[in-house]
Amino acid sequence: MATGPQRYPGASTAAWYQDDFGGDSMEVNVVVLHTTEGRTLPDYNGGAVAPNLTAVPDFTVKRLRWYQHFDIDISSRALVNLRGGVETNTLNVVQVELVGTCDPDTHARWGSAAHIYWPQAPNWALEGVADFLRWMHEEHGVPLSGPAKWPAYPTSYANGGHQRMSYAEWNDFRGVCGHMHVPENVHGDPGAIDFTRLLQLAKTDPEPVPPVTEPVKPKVSLAHIVAAARKDPAAAQGHTTYKAEVLLVEKALRAEGLLSSTYVDGSFGSKTIDAYARWQRSPAGGGYVGTAADGIPGTASLKRLGAKHGFTVTA
Length: 315
Hints:
Largest sheet: 5 strands, mixed
Oligomer: single chain
Protein backbone atom coordinates (compact mmCIF):
# COMPACT_ATOMS: atom_id res chain seq x y z
CA MET A 1 0.00 0.00 0.00
CA ALA A 2 1.58 3.27 -1.12
CA THR A 3 2.10 5.86 1.61
CA GLY A 4 3.73 9.25 1.65
CA PRO A 5 3.61 11.94 -1.05
CA GLN A 6 3.76 10.53 -4.56
CA ARG A 7 5.05 13.58 -6.46
CA TYR A 8 8.46 15.12 -5.86
CA PRO A 9 7.90 18.84 -5.13
CA GLY A 10 8.68 20.99 -8.14
CA ALA A 11 8.98 18.10 -10.60
CA SER A 12 7.37 18.59 -14.01
CA THR A 13 4.91 16.00 -15.30
CA ALA A 14 5.36 17.12 -18.90
CA ALA A 15 6.76 13.63 -19.70
CA TRP A 16 4.29 11.53 -17.69
CA TYR A 17 4.12 7.84 -18.71
CA GLN A 18 2.18 6.15 -15.94
CA ASP A 19 -1.14 6.49 -17.77
CA ASP A 20 0.28 4.54 -20.72
CA PHE A 21 2.38 1.94 -18.91
CA GLY A 22 0.80 1.55 -15.50
CA GLY A 23 3.03 -0.24 -13.03
CA ASP A 24 2.78 -2.17 -9.78
CA SER A 25 1.97 -0.51 -6.47
CA MET A 26 4.88 -0.75 -4.03
CA GLU A 27 6.15 0.63 -0.72
CA VAL A 28 9.49 2.10 -1.81
CA ASN A 29 12.59 1.52 0.31
CA VAL A 30 15.33 1.68 -2.34
CA VAL A 31 16.56 4.45 -4.67
CA VAL A 32 18.47 3.33 -7.78
CA LEU A 33 20.61 5.96 -9.54
CA HIS A 34 21.27 5.74 -13.30
CA THR A 35 22.96 8.00 -15.83
CA THR A 36 21.26 8.58 -19.18
CA GLU A 37 24.50 8.78 -21.22
CA GLY A 38 22.97 11.71 -23.06
CA ARG A 39 22.81 15.49 -22.63
CA THR A 40 19.05 16.10 -22.83
CA LEU A 41 15.85 14.61 -21.46
CA PRO A 42 15.40 11.20 -23.17
CA ASP A 43 12.09 10.06 -24.62
CA TYR A 44 12.65 6.54 -23.19
CA ASN A 45 11.09 4.93 -26.29
CA GLY A 46 7.88 6.75 -25.57
CA GLY A 47 8.07 5.78 -21.89
CA ALA A 48 8.65 2.06 -22.40
CA VAL A 49 11.96 2.13 -20.49
CA ALA A 50 11.37 5.19 -18.33
CA PRO A 51 12.40 5.62 -14.68
CA ASN A 52 10.29 7.29 -12.02
CA LEU A 53 12.17 10.58 -12.36
CA THR A 54 14.81 12.26 -14.48
CA ALA A 55 17.11 15.04 -13.30
CA VAL A 56 18.15 17.43 -16.09
CA PRO A 57 20.94 19.94 -15.40
CA ASP A 58 20.20 23.59 -16.11
CA PHE A 59 23.62 25.14 -16.54
CA THR A 60 22.30 28.69 -16.70
CA VAL A 61 21.00 28.69 -13.13
CA LYS A 62 23.16 25.77 -11.91
CA ARG A 63 20.39 23.53 -10.64
CA LEU A 64 18.68 20.28 -11.56
CA ARG A 65 15.27 20.38 -13.17
CA TRP A 66 13.21 17.32 -12.32
CA TYR A 67 10.75 15.45 -14.52
CA GLN A 68 8.51 12.79 -13.01
CA HIS A 69 7.23 9.93 -15.14
CA PHE A 70 5.65 7.61 -12.54
CA ASP A 71 4.45 8.04 -8.97
CA ILE A 72 7.04 7.31 -6.28
CA ASP A 73 5.34 4.08 -5.17
CA ILE A 74 4.60 2.82 -8.69
CA SER A 75 7.14 0.58 -10.42
CA SER A 76 8.88 2.08 -13.45
CA ARG A 77 10.72 0.39 -16.31
CA ALA A 78 14.45 1.24 -16.41
CA LEU A 79 15.88 -2.06 -15.10
CA VAL A 80 16.27 -5.42 -16.78
CA ASN A 81 14.03 -7.95 -15.05
CA LEU A 82 14.73 -11.52 -16.18
CA ARG A 83 12.30 -14.38 -15.82
CA GLY A 84 13.04 -16.82 -13.04
CA GLY A 85 15.34 -14.54 -11.04
CA VAL A 86 14.62 -11.75 -8.61
CA GLU A 87 12.29 -8.83 -9.04
CA THR A 88 14.05 -5.59 -9.97
CA ASN A 89 11.71 -2.85 -11.22
CA THR A 90 8.92 -4.00 -8.93
CA LEU A 91 10.96 -4.68 -5.77
CA ASN A 92 10.12 -1.47 -3.87
CA VAL A 93 12.47 0.57 -6.06
CA VAL A 94 12.23 4.21 -7.16
CA GLN A 95 14.51 4.86 -10.12
CA VAL A 96 16.24 8.14 -10.99
CA GLU A 97 18.05 8.87 -14.25
CA LEU A 98 20.69 11.61 -14.06
CA VAL A 99 21.19 13.30 -17.42
CA GLY A 100 24.87 13.12 -18.30
CA THR A 101 27.52 10.43 -18.46
CA CYS A 102 29.70 8.23 -16.27
CA ASP A 103 31.86 7.14 -19.22
CA PRO A 104 35.23 8.95 -19.47
CA ASP A 105 35.36 8.34 -23.24
CA THR A 106 31.94 9.95 -23.71
CA HIS A 107 33.01 12.83 -21.47
CA ALA A 108 36.09 13.38 -23.65
CA ARG A 109 34.07 13.12 -26.88
CA TRP A 110 31.55 15.73 -25.72
CA GLY A 111 34.40 18.09 -24.95
CA SER A 112 33.25 21.64 -24.23
CA ALA A 113 29.56 20.91 -24.88
CA ALA A 114 27.58 21.55 -21.70
CA HIS A 115 27.20 18.29 -19.80
CA ILE A 116 27.80 16.64 -16.45
CA TYR A 117 30.42 13.95 -16.06
CA TRP A 118 28.93 12.49 -12.90
CA PRO A 119 32.18 11.19 -11.36
CA GLN A 120 33.28 14.85 -11.35
CA ALA A 121 29.87 16.44 -10.88
CA PRO A 122 29.81 20.04 -9.64
CA ASN A 123 28.63 20.54 -6.10
CA TRP A 124 25.33 22.13 -7.20
CA ALA A 125 24.43 18.97 -9.11
CA LEU A 126 25.31 16.72 -6.17
CA GLU A 127 23.24 18.99 -3.92
CA GLY A 128 20.27 18.56 -6.26
CA VAL A 129 20.51 14.77 -6.05
CA ALA A 130 21.07 14.96 -2.27
CA ASP A 131 17.93 17.06 -1.87
CA PHE A 132 15.94 14.27 -3.51
CA LEU A 133 17.57 11.58 -1.36
CA ARG A 134 16.84 13.60 1.78
CA TRP A 135 13.20 13.94 0.72
CA MET A 136 12.96 10.19 0.05
CA HIS A 137 14.41 9.54 3.50
CA GLU A 138 12.08 11.95 5.27
CA GLU A 139 8.90 11.13 3.35
CA HIS A 140 9.38 7.43 2.49
CA GLY A 141 11.91 6.19 5.01
CA VAL A 142 14.61 5.22 2.49
CA PRO A 143 17.85 4.80 4.50
CA LEU A 144 20.67 7.22 3.67
CA SER A 145 23.17 4.43 3.19
CA GLY A 146 24.34 2.18 0.40
CA PRO A 147 27.03 -0.09 -1.02
CA ALA A 148 30.70 0.55 -0.24
CA LYS A 149 31.89 -0.10 -3.80
CA TRP A 150 31.20 2.44 -6.57
CA PRO A 151 33.86 1.53 -9.17
CA ALA A 152 34.55 3.77 -12.13
CA TYR A 153 33.15 2.95 -15.54
CA PRO A 154 34.04 0.81 -17.52
CA THR A 155 35.28 -1.35 -14.63
CA SER A 156 31.75 -1.15 -13.22
CA TYR A 157 30.24 -2.74 -16.36
CA ALA A 158 28.79 -6.20 -15.73
CA ASN A 159 30.49 -7.01 -12.43
CA GLY A 160 34.04 -5.93 -13.20
CA GLY A 161 34.42 -4.21 -9.85
CA HIS A 162 32.78 -7.02 -7.91
CA GLN A 163 30.14 -4.53 -6.88
CA ARG A 164 26.94 -6.18 -8.12
CA MET A 165 24.67 -7.67 -5.47
CA SER A 166 23.69 -11.29 -5.29
CA TYR A 167 20.01 -12.17 -5.38
CA ALA A 168 19.95 -12.51 -1.61
CA GLU A 169 21.77 -9.21 -1.05
CA TRP A 170 19.38 -7.43 -3.39
CA ASN A 171 16.30 -8.84 -1.70
CA ASP A 172 17.61 -7.67 1.68
CA PHE A 173 18.88 -4.27 0.53
CA ARG A 174 17.39 -1.00 1.76
CA GLY A 175 18.94 2.35 0.85
CA VAL A 176 20.57 4.01 -2.18
CA CYS A 177 22.48 2.16 -4.90
CA GLY A 178 23.40 2.43 -8.55
CA HIS A 179 22.29 0.60 -11.66
CA MET A 180 25.72 -1.09 -11.38
CA HIS A 181 24.63 -2.84 -8.19
CA VAL A 182 21.34 -4.40 -9.36
CA PRO A 183 21.39 -8.12 -10.24
CA GLU A 184 20.22 -9.32 -13.67
CA ASN A 185 21.62 -6.04 -15.10
CA VAL A 186 25.01 -5.38 -16.72
CA HIS A 187 25.12 -1.60 -17.01
CA GLY A 188 27.84 0.17 -15.00
CA ASP A 189 26.20 3.52 -14.31
CA PRO A 190 26.48 5.85 -12.51
CA GLY A 191 30.14 4.87 -12.18
CA ALA A 192 32.34 6.52 -9.60
CA ILE A 193 29.85 9.16 -8.51
CA ASP A 194 30.93 10.72 -5.21
CA PHE A 195 28.56 8.68 -3.08
CA THR A 196 30.23 9.69 0.18
CA ARG A 197 29.67 13.36 -0.65
CA LEU A 198 26.09 12.66 -1.72
CA LEU A 199 25.28 11.12 1.65
CA GLN A 200 27.02 13.94 3.51
CA LEU A 201 24.90 16.48 1.67
CA ALA A 202 21.71 14.45 2.12
CA LYS A 203 22.30 14.17 5.87
CA THR A 204 22.95 17.90 6.25
CA ASP A 205 20.00 20.17 6.82
CA PRO A 206 19.80 22.58 3.90
CA GLU A 207 20.44 26.19 4.69
CA PRO A 208 17.08 27.84 5.36
CA VAL A 209 15.92 30.18 2.68
CA PRO A 210 15.52 33.60 4.30
CA PRO A 211 11.95 34.85 4.14
CA VAL A 212 11.24 37.48 1.56
CA THR A 213 10.37 40.65 3.43
CA GLU A 214 9.01 43.81 1.99
CA PRO A 215 11.29 46.79 2.58
CA VAL A 216 9.97 49.15 5.22
CA LYS A 217 8.58 52.22 3.51
CA PRO A 218 9.25 55.65 5.00
CA LYS A 219 6.21 57.39 6.47
CA VAL A 220 4.88 60.81 5.66
CA SER A 221 2.37 62.47 7.99
CA LEU A 222 -0.40 64.30 6.13
CA ALA A 223 -0.75 66.70 9.07
CA HIS A 224 2.98 67.53 8.94
CA ILE A 225 2.98 68.09 5.17
CA VAL A 226 -0.10 70.33 5.34
CA ALA A 227 1.48 72.32 8.18
CA ALA A 228 4.66 72.77 6.12
CA ALA A 229 2.67 73.80 3.04
CA ARG A 230 0.89 76.50 5.05
CA LYS A 231 3.92 77.77 7.00
CA ASP A 232 7.00 77.48 4.76
CA PRO A 233 6.00 79.77 1.84
CA ALA A 234 5.66 82.81 4.12
CA ALA A 235 8.65 82.00 6.33
CA ALA A 236 12.21 83.25 5.87
CA GLN A 237 14.20 81.84 2.97
CA GLY A 238 15.42 78.32 3.79
CA HIS A 239 12.93 77.75 6.62
CA THR A 240 11.83 74.14 6.99
CA THR A 241 9.04 72.78 9.12
CA TYR A 242 9.21 68.99 8.64
CA LYS A 243 12.25 68.72 6.39
CA ALA A 244 12.66 64.95 6.14
CA GLU A 245 9.03 64.33 5.22
CA VAL A 246 8.85 67.27 2.83
CA LEU A 247 11.96 65.99 1.07
CA LEU A 248 10.21 62.70 0.36
CA VAL A 249 7.31 64.57 -1.26
CA GLU A 250 9.61 66.90 -3.21
CA LYS A 251 11.70 64.00 -4.53
CA ALA A 252 8.50 62.34 -5.74
CA LEU A 253 7.42 65.56 -7.47
CA ARG A 254 10.86 65.81 -9.07
CA ALA A 255 10.55 62.23 -10.31
CA GLU A 256 7.23 63.17 -11.86
CA GLY A 257 8.96 66.03 -13.72
CA LEU A 258 7.00 68.65 -11.81
CA LEU A 259 9.71 70.20 -9.63
CA SER A 260 13.25 71.26 -10.44
CA SER A 261 16.05 69.70 -8.38
CA THR A 262 16.98 73.24 -7.31
CA TYR A 263 13.89 73.35 -5.11
CA VAL A 264 14.22 69.90 -3.56
CA ASP A 265 15.42 71.32 -0.24
CA GLY A 266 12.94 70.23 2.43
CA SER A 267 11.06 73.51 2.45
CA PHE A 268 7.49 73.38 1.15
CA GLY A 269 7.84 76.78 -0.52
CA SER A 270 5.93 78.38 -3.36
CA LYS A 271 7.67 76.34 -6.06
CA THR A 272 6.70 73.13 -4.25
CA ILE A 273 3.13 74.44 -3.86
CA ASP A 274 2.95 75.04 -7.63
CA ALA A 275 4.42 71.61 -8.39
CA TYR A 276 1.99 69.88 -6.05
CA ALA A 277 -0.94 71.72 -7.66
CA ARG A 278 0.15 70.36 -11.04
CA TRP A 279 0.26 66.88 -9.48
CA GLN A 280 -3.29 67.34 -8.18
CA ARG A 281 -4.50 68.37 -11.65
CA SER A 282 -2.80 65.44 -13.36
CA PRO A 283 -4.79 62.22 -13.99
CA ALA A 284 -2.35 60.27 -11.78
CA GLY A 285 -2.83 62.76 -8.95
CA GLY A 286 -6.63 62.65 -9.12
CA GLY A 287 -7.53 65.10 -11.90
CA TYR A 288 -8.66 67.83 -9.51
CA VAL A 289 -9.78 71.22 -10.84
CA GLY A 290 -10.29 74.70 -9.49
CA THR A 291 -9.67 75.28 -5.80
CA ALA A 292 -9.38 71.54 -5.23
CA ALA A 293 -5.97 71.79 -6.94
CA ASP A 294 -4.54 74.50 -4.70
CA GLY A 295 -1.18 72.87 -3.95
CA ILE A 296 -2.09 71.94 -0.38
CA PRO A 297 -1.86 68.14 -0.15
CA GLY A 298 -4.98 66.14 0.59
CA THR A 299 -5.23 62.53 1.70
CA ALA A 300 -6.11 61.02 -1.69
CA SER A 301 -3.56 62.88 -3.81
CA LEU A 302 -0.75 62.34 -1.29
CA LYS A 303 -1.50 58.61 -1.06
CA ARG A 304 -1.39 58.37 -4.87
CA LEU A 305 2.02 60.07 -4.86
CA GLY A 306 3.26 57.80 -2.08
CA ALA A 307 2.05 54.65 -3.84
CA LYS A 308 4.08 55.58 -6.93
CA HIS A 309 7.20 56.68 -5.09
CA GLY A 310 7.56 54.40 -2.11
CA PHE A 311 6.27 56.16 0.99
CA THR A 312 3.31 55.51 3.24
CA VAL A 313 0.90 58.28 4.25
CA THR A 314 -0.23 58.51 7.86
CA ALA A 315 -2.68 60.94 9.46
